[in-house]
Amino acid sequence: MEGSRPATAEDLPRIADLAEVARRELSPMKGGALWAAREAIAPPLEDAYAALIGRDDALVVVGTFDDAVVGFGAVTLERLRTGDTLGVVTDLFVEDEARAVGVGEAMAEALVAFCRAKQCVGIDALALPGHRAAKNFFEGEGFTARALVMHRPLADGGEDGGGEDAAGQP
Question: Distance between alpha carbon 70 and the CA centroid of its chain, in Å?
Answer without folding.
Answer: 14
